[in-house]
Amino acid sequence: MDAIHRFTKPALRTPRAVIAFEGWNDACEAASGVAAYVIEQAVVTEPFAVIDPEEFFDFQVRRPTVSIDQGGTRRLSWPTTKFFAVETPSQDRDLIVVLGEEPSFRWKTFSRHVTKVLVEMDVEEVVLLGAFIGQVAHTRPVPVAGVATDPALIDRHGLSRSSYEGPTGIIGVLQEACREVGLPAMSLWAATPHYLAANANPKAMLALAERAQAILELPTDLADLRSAADEFETRVADALDASDELAEYVTELEETDDEEPVSEFDPGLTDDLVQEIESFLRDQE
Question: What is the pLDDT of residue 228?
């Protein structure tokens, strides 16, 4: 049985695609938050295709959830990868947004299912979104690095090159799958502060959204996301005011940002400070 369930085939004009997955590639929900925001702003409620999760998920690790609708009917929700069509009449091309959760099994097969749908829809270019935890200060612009099937794409869009080597997530595998079928693909990676790792980060979402908007020529209104980012910064500033020690630590990070590129996160650093700010932010919700 085909794992791809196609409900319709929308008539899209030279579409491009933006892809994000929850999980390992999605620090502070920055990547999935952008994809969800674009879908919400476009008022698109139903996907035109999905990938059935049966072959790709361990349901003891990622269990389906039960909900009850207004009529009292119980429904199961599965970790399904969804493809949404976003029409952009003000542009000469449309958009496909792919949103899902990082699968547990058969990543090569899963990624080839994704690219199969993209090729069927005549997608011309793919932007994948990711975010990682870095030793960066929230007070500075969010660093966004790029990786591409063609390195010239990185230079064309003025992105920093990622020098990361090591374990990868489904975004890295999908980018390789795009290369296999000849789809130009670029992944954008935002660095999020390690001391805010337990919270959604609208500022990182906004940085990714702005980069994706410029590359894909999206007309998405980012005003609500900018407001959320401003509110987030206000909450974090309140936490800094409540802790001289934390404020001093962030100042040290700012100085490090001036001297060195983004470094990998050392989980042994500042454990007490991480707990302090996370506790403060949770209390504000």
Answer: 95
